[in-house]
Design a protein that fits this description.
alpha/beta, Rossmann fold, DNA polymerase, domain 1, 43% helix, globular, binds 6-O-phosphono-beta-D-glucopyranose, binds magnesium ion
Length: 218
């Protein structure tokens, strides 16, 4: 089997937006008088916007404080703070090793896709000036089942026209690794901190991404 495509998560893999997610949630939590810290933020990696808010509410014993509509409104408020913050992103925020890795993959005929559940993915890629490096960018608004469901990774494989077994997924969150495995792809885990399921290839940082080594794992 030869490698046909690489499917990348965005937040924590192509760039580190966790600090902006943290700051935006923190601003909302402070306004609401809720506790929120870096440890809770860790639990939100790879988790959808509304489910992230549910986790914050759970940690504050406040799951019944708001109606579903109110929760939507508040999660959207966080998103407005987040959107304002990410406007600071530049190509300098691309994580180390990413551009050479994708360039080498593309030079070897390997297609690249983005499987992010962030509805801000397109804007982030635009600010990083790397949108053109991808043959397909999944639209999070169309994904019905969040990671760990395989839907988003399968959507990318389908869109590129490859069998998932010919693709490798790159992720930084436990839910993402589960999603890649459920899709039937090999996984590369970047600094995955919660590891009840081990990635097939374990890396500490994106700077360790080595195209030849990864290609030969398939
Ligand atoms: C994921 C992040 O990529 O996207 C999560 O790891 C975030 O922290 C999720 O909640 C949804 O992002 P957005 O931009 O649609 O709120
Ligand atoms: Mg991620």
């Amino acid at each position: 089997m030869s490698l046909k495509a690489l499917v990348f998560d965005l937040d924590g893999v192509l760039t580190d937006t966790a600090k902006y997610h943290y700051l935006a949630w923190k601003k909302l939590a402070d306004e609401l008088g809720f506790y929120f810290d870096e440890d809770i933020n860790e639990l939100l990696k790879g988790v959808s916007r509304i489910n992230s808010f549910e986790i914050i509410l759970e940690k504050n014993n406040a799951t019944t404080n708001f109606s579903a509509t109110e929760k939507e409104v508040l999660a959207n408020k966080k998103n407005e703070y987040y959107k304002e913050m990410i406007e600071q992103l530049t190509p300098n925020d691309i994580l180390p090793g990413i551009v050479p890795f994708i360039t080498e993959a593309r030079n070897n005929g390997v297609k690249c896709a983005v499987a992010s559940i962030s509805k801000n993915a397109s804007r982030v890629l635009e600010l990083l000036e790397i949108s053109d490096m991808f043959d397909y960018i999944a639209d999070a608004a169309l994904v019905k089942k969040p990671k760990p469901d395989p839907e988003i990774f399968l959507t990318c494989a389908n869109a590129l026209g490859f069998d998932p077994a010919e693709c490798i997924g790159v992720e930084d969150a436990q839910a993402g690794i589960e999603s890649i495995h459920a899709a039937g792809m090999l996984s590369v885990g970047i600094n995955v901190t919660v590891t009840s399921i081990m990635p097939d290839i374990v890396l500490k940082s994106t700077s360790e991404l080595d195209f030849n080594k990864i290609k030969n794992q398939l």
